[in-house]
Write a structure and sequence with these properties.
Two copies of one chain form a homodimer. Chain A is α/β, with parallel strands linked by helices. Chain A folds into three domains: about 45 residues, 434 Repressor (Amino-terminal Domain) (Orthogonal Bundle); about 130 residues, Response regulator (Rossmann fold); about 130 residues, Response regulator (Rossmann fold, 3-Layer(aba) Sandwich), CATH 3.40.50.2300. Helix content of chain A is about 40%, strand content about 15%. In chain A, the strands form two sheets. Chain A has a six-stranded parallel sheet, sandwiched between helices. Chain A has a six-stranded mixed sheet with strand order 7-6-8-9-10-12, sandwiched between helices. In chain A, helix 1 packs across helix 3. Chain A is elongated, with a radius of gyration of 27 Å. Chain A starts with 15 loop residues before the first helix and ends in an 18-residue tail after the last strand. At the A-B interface, helix 4, helix 5, strand 2 and helix 11 of A face helix 4, helix 5, strand 2 and helix 11 of B. The first copy, chain A, binds a DNA duplex through helix 2 and helix 4.
DNA sequence: GTTTGCTGCGCAAACGTTTCCCATATGCTG
DNA sequence: CAGCATATGGGAAACGTTTGCGCAGCAAAC
């Protein structure tokens, strides 16, 4: 009486044997049917599927993983989930993963390399099939150690060598060029740029894309208007302050990410300047909250959904043999999203309201 | 040559047998040592731990889960990850889970009850040990069906009956009372409230907390100033518009969540009103972006970290036998976070700038 | 010196799959 | 019609753990 099984009042979750019994086949056939092995007789397969349906059977993932060595679990490592950049990325990653029959494990590093190692550790213990490292600031030595693990990894921007690694390239230039052109068409000639921390690969890429776009538009950059920010609100506030304090300010400011742009908005608000009447501002990333700022922020969009989809794809390509004809190329575009923070240049230079 | 094992150049991940061999004990003893079974001789245990250390062994989670029936996986179901309310919740949940030796599986329902069922389905297939349902709008019939599953569940606000269910209560009143008092002290007598969709339990709770707090502060509510919003930016914009259009508007507006409050800010900005000079605004939730609005939003904070911690605790209490003396009580507080969107009431009624 | 009781270790049976290998049935060729 | 190649299903061995059960070994009691 004490042991289970006796309790037939609550039907136990059926296992593969129950299905086999009902379909009058062996468990091997059931397994083959489920895994769509081609050699199984269609009539038997139909019997099996019917049995599966009537019993409401679903295979035990643990057992499956144990014997096959494939967990169908994908790891996703991000910097910081409260950074508005990442939720959309996660969303896309989840969708794409589930679409491909995978489940995901998320971890955030909070920009701490040590925590990153712990994350990878935990994921390896859970036997993930592959990991997407979507934190943008990844350092050399850590990358080296990651290379030891014999597990597929995918990165953004950085391209470590190794047969198990993939890289997703971002075409920063396309969208940034659109933004510069947009400002140029509106009549701006004096454009400033607040970059991210330049030790980050992605920040350098964005800045050089900006410089190139300026050149192509025939605009000359004033060196004093090229400042290094921190990809944070505070950095944006501080750098805009500096621009205002210097005698001559640009009429338009582009930034390396949206948080910086929001900082710029704050700085300008405090100084009594109006956007876009006195200054035009264009951000980068087009995070969700860019729609909610005052005024709604014009920003260069980098599609997180696309990025996530690429990441899942890259991992899948490593995990499931693809036809030789298939030559993957993981690249995501950037595009300008026009809202209301950029307009015609002010006809007369802004004078700070005396306070 | 073809099969693995031969490749001793890359050391295979050691299993429990390797540890047993090195420590000169049986695998049973290794297992017992790892699981801190009391009956194992300390000297043997030490040998085992040493062997584990030198080999860098970590047990295979799949095999463990298969035989023990416990996956040490916790499910977390949320409404929508791009809603700024949830990332912090996830962060807290992850931290608390890892702290207790669990890993987490996240899914978002996008407010679709059908998708919610799929989420639960997927999680059951992964054999999660318990699920936290942190979506605020959960409906009756769905709840019924959830009750069928014999797996611990934890909810917010709603309290389904069942031996496997837990509920986390939120003390909405505390923080909302603080907000009303704050306004009252500043001198506001005319306070409006934009609620959430009233079919949501949590929205009703917040509204009634507001009404009670108004009563206790000796303030009379003008019925026309009690409006039903949608917990979205658009709802906030529309309802604030209505308040402005009606002849007489309140001097302060409280809302049922921060998105609504941000909508109010937009509406006021468009009408040319200044915050807090012309109107005071107080939100609810204190999401991260409340710090970034113009002006930074005063808001009633409900700690997502605390909420998440409670959820993990509630699940753990169901999963691991607790001493009888332990009587759990899952309750989270709310508190006012003062920023800059509430100030003294305007001395003269706001007149919309003619446009 | 024999019995009893207890402690703590090892043996081996699960857990629910996948997959290798072999047996059988079937079709085809000569 | 015999013989062989080929398709297809079943038996059973893995996968790496946990855990029930039995059995040594030892101390205490008679």
């Amino acid at each position: 009486m004490s042991r289970a099984k006796r309790n037939t009042n609550r039907p136990a979750r059926p296992d593969i044997h129950a299905v086999a019994r009902l379909a009058r086949v062996s468990i091997a056939t059931v397994s083959r049917t489920i895994n769509h092995v081609a050699t199984v007789d269609p009539r038997l397969a139909q019997r099996v599927w019917k049995a599966i349906d009537t019993l409401g059977y679903s295979p035990n993932t643990q057992a499956r993983a144990l014997v096959s060595g494939r967990s169908h679990l994908l790891g996703l490592i991000i910097s910081e989930i409260t950074n508005p950049f990442f939720p959309e990325l996660i969303q896309g990653f989840e969708d794409a993963a589930v679409e491909n029959g995978y489940e995901i494990l998320i971890s955030s590093t909070n920009y701490d390399p040590q925590r990153m190692e712990l994350c990878i550790q935990r994921m390896l213990e859970r036997k993930v099939d592959g990991v997407a490292v979507m934190t943008f600031g990844i350092e050399g030595p850590l990358l080296e150690r990651l290379a030891q693990r014999d597990i597929p990894l995918v990165f953004v921007d950085v391209a470590p060598k190794g047969p198990l690694f993939s890289t997703i390239e971002v075409d920063y230039y396309h969208g940034i060029r659109e933004a510069v052109q947009h400002l140029a068409v509106l009549g701006h000639r004096r454009i400033g740029f607040i970059s991210g921390p330049l030790h980050l690969h992605s920040a350098r890429e964005r800045q050089s894309a900006f410089l190139r776009a300026m050149g192509e538009a025939g605009l000359k950059l004033t060196p004093a208007w090229l400042l290094e920010g921190t990809h944070t609100l505070e950095g944006g506030i501080a750098m805009m302050q500096r621009l205002l304090d210097s005698g001559e300010a640009p009429t338009a400011i582009m930034t390396s990410n949206d948080m910086t742009a929001i900082g710029v908005l704050h700085s300008l608000h405090k100084a009594g300047a109006r956007v876009p009447d006195d200054f035009s501002v264009i951000g980068f990333d087009d995070v969700t909250i860019a729609q909610f700022t005052l005024p709604p922020l014009t920003s260069v969009q980098m599609s997180r959904l696309e990025l996530a989809r690429c990441a899942v794809l890259a991992l899948r390509d490593r995990l499931e043999p693809q036809p030789v004809s298939y030559v993957p190329r993981y690249k995501v575009q950037t595009r300008l999203t026009v809202r209301q923070s950029a307009g015609l240049p002010a006809t007369r230079p802004f004078r700070r309201a005396n306070g």
